[in-house]
Amino acid sequence: MIGKLDDYLRFNESALSLRSQRQQLLASNIANADTPNYKARDIDFASALQGVLARTSPPAGVLATPTAGQLGGAAQNGDTLPDGTPVLYRNPAQGAADGNTVDMDVERNQFADNALRYEAGITMINMQIRGIMAAIQGGQ
Q1: Phi and psi dihedrals of 90, rounded to 5?
Q2: How many domains in the chain?
C-alpha cells in the first residue's frame, strides 16, 4: 500500500524537490550579481525531472525531450545537484566588463516563475492528499 502511495505522489514530490533546488541556484545568482567573474547557473528543469523520474520509477516515456534554451554546457568541476542533475551555466545576452554573467532581469523572472510553479506544485500535492483522505474516509 505504501509503495502505491509513493508511486501516486512521486511526480509532484520529485518536481517540488527540483524546484526547491533550482530556487536555491537562482537565489545564489541574484546574491552574486555584483561578484566579479561569477557565472550564473541554472538547470534544465524538464530534462532534470525526466532524469529523476527515470531513476526512481519504471520507464514511462511521458515527458518529451526539452531544449536547453539559453543554458550552456555543464560546469567543468562536475557541479551537480544532490540527485545527480548537472548544473549548467547560463549564456549571457551581453557580457559584463567584470566577467559576471548574471542578468538581473532574467534572474528575477526565472525566480518568480519558479516560485509560482513551486506553489502550484504544493497545491497539486494538497489536492492529491485530500483525494486520498476522501477515499479513506468514504467521501464524508
Answers
A1: -85, 130
A2: 1
User: What is the distance between the alpha carbons of residues 100 and 34, in angstroms, rounded to a whole number?
Assistant: 7
User: Given pLDDT bands bounded at 50, 70 and 90, which one contains residue 65?
Assistant: very low
Q: Which domain holds residue 23?
A: 2-137
Which single residue is written with the C-alpha cell 508511486? 7
Given a contact cutoff of 8 angstroms between Cβ atoms, the answer to whether 118 and 26 are in contact is no
Residue pointed to by grid coordinates 528543469: 45
Q: Which of 96, 82, 77 is nearest to 33 (CA)?
A: 96
- For residue range 18-59, what is the model confidence (pLDDT) as tens digits? 999 999 999 999 999 999 999 999 999 999 999 998 887 543
What does the H/E/C string look like for the chain? CHHHHHHHHHHHHHHHHHHHHHHHHHHHHHHCCCCCCCCCEECCHHHHHHHHHHHHCCCCCCCCCCCCCCEEEECCCCCECCCCCECEEECCCCCCCCCCCCCHHHHHHHHHHHHHHHHHHHHHHHHHHHHHHHHHHCCC
